[in-house]
Amino acid sequence: MDVQSDRKIVLVTRKTRLENLIIRFHTQAQAKFYIESQGADFTDYLNENKQYLSALRVTLAALEERGRFQRIDRSYLTNFQFAPDDIVVALGQDGLVANVIKYLDGQPLIGVNPDPYRYDGVLLPFEPRDLQLIIEETAVNQRAYETVTMAKATLGDQQVLYAVNDLFFGPKSHTSARYEIEFGKYKEVQSSSGVIVSTGLGSTGWMKSIVTGSVGIAAGMMNQQMDITYPATKWDSNNLQFAVREPFPSKATEARLVFGEINASKPLGLSSLMPENGVIFSDGIETDFLDFNSGAKAVVTVAEKQGRLII
């Protein structure tokens, strides 16, 4: 077997909702009692878990037949070291794929949908039964892929946070964020519910909802129809977009610099004016964060590395 075809596979899995409930309540019976006491259907949790474990068995069988592989839970991603020639397989929802990509630096990622009847799987083009052939073609670089642009936030002390979908700058709780924003020639102090920076991949998510809501509010206030559809950005776009959520103008704060495009020659600067509870988190995962309190300054740029999603 040549070096290319002997590349190690890293399988990233996630706990199902049922498994997380059992961790929380210690037994399945107690988990069932809790869910049903809330008026929910526990059968859905059982069916989801059963289907995921079935998909996992098929996936593991394919990897065992091929040779070298390693399985890790997504909770260990922050401390796991991927080798440059690893091939990575993510078995889970689209969010798992997005979460994995930001820890990679060009390694190919194969998204596998464990339950096509449950998940749309925009980032999950394959099913477990496809895996053996897809890995073989990927191992010898004969499989097409999409390039995914990432966002990067760098603090003054050189701490870095990457994002595949979006970065959030703001408070941990539902209070106001206070910061100075700098973009191009413009700078102002703002108070808002936070700033979102979106990649092309994330443009159909949080950013779309912010723009859609803003357009709808403006249309309602002017009592007229505004047929504006927010266009999705290509996954490999060299631009990022930022939007300020619910900016509040006052004697001490402004609200003019609320939307723009970040590129290689035009980064976004944010300086925290929050004495405590300020954070930067990525891809909607609040546990993956950097502190962003008074004195901290972040520079947001297009990341120097890109994701590589096998299609």
Percentage of β-strand residues: 25-35%
> What is the succession of H and E elements?
EHHHEEHEHEEEEEEHEEEEEE
In the CATH scheme, the class of the largest domain would be: Mainly Beta
Report the strand count: 16
Overall shape: globular
Helix content: 25-40%
**CATH architecture verdict of the largest domain:** Sandwich
Total count of domains? 2
Q: What is the name of the CATH superfamily of the largest domain?
A: Probable inorganic polyphosphate/atp-NAD kinase, domain 2
Total number of helical segments? 6
Helix- and strand-based class?
A: alpha+beta
- Gyration radius (Cα, Å) is 22 Å
Poorly predicted spans: none
Main beta sheet strand tally, sense and closure: 10 strands, mixed
Average pLDDT over all residues: 91
Oligomer status: single chain
The N- to C-terminal Cα distance equals 25 Å
Q: Please name the CATH topology of the largest domain.
A: Tumour Suppressor Smad4
Describe the structure.
The protein is an alpha+beta fold and 311 residues long. The chain has 2 domains: 9-143, Rossmann fold; 149-303, Sandwich (Tumour Suppressor Smad4), CATH 2.60.200. It has helices spanning 17-25, 28-37, 42-66, 94-101, 131-139, 206-222, and strands at 9-13, 69-73, 87-91, 108-112, 145-155, 160-163, 166-171, 177-183, 186-192, 195-198, 240-244, 259-262, 268-272, 278-282, 285-291, 297-310. The strands form 2 sheets. Strands 1, 2, 3, 4, 5, 6, 8, 9, 13 and 16 form a 10-stranded mixed sheet that branches. It has a 6-stranded antiparallel sheet with strand order 12-11-10-7-14-15, with helices on one face. The radius of gyration is 22 Å and the shape is globular. The two termini are 25 Å apart.
